[in-house]
Amino acid sequence: MSRPATPGFFQHLWLLWGLRLNIGLNQGPGKNRLMAVGAFLLSSAPAWGLGVSFYGLMRLPPVAQNEVWPFFILNLLCFVTSAVWVTWPLMSAGVDDHSELSRYAPFPISPFRLLIASTVASLFEPRALVFYAPLTGAALGYASVHTVRVKWFAVLLYVLFALLNAAWSRVGLHLVLNVLRAKNSAQLIGGGFVFFLVAASFIPPIDTSWLTAVGEGGMEKMDMGLIVDATIALGRVPPGYFGDALLELSYGYRRNALANGVGMLFFMLMGLAIAYALLLHFHRNVGRAGPAVKESGDSDPFARTRSRYTTLLVREALDLWRNPRARLLASVPFVLAILMKLTSGRALFEYMLGASVDAWLMGGLCIYGSVVMASTFSQNTFAYDGHGLAMLIAAPVELGDVMRAKNVVQGTAAGGMALLVGLFYRVYFGRGSALDFLCAMAAVVAVIPVLLAAGNFLSLYFPVKFHASLKRRDKLPLTASMLGIVAASVGCAPFVWALRFAGTSGPSWQTLAIIALCATVNAVMYRALLPLALRLLDQRRELVLRAVTRE
Question: What is the pTM of this model?
Answer without folding.
Answer: 0.70
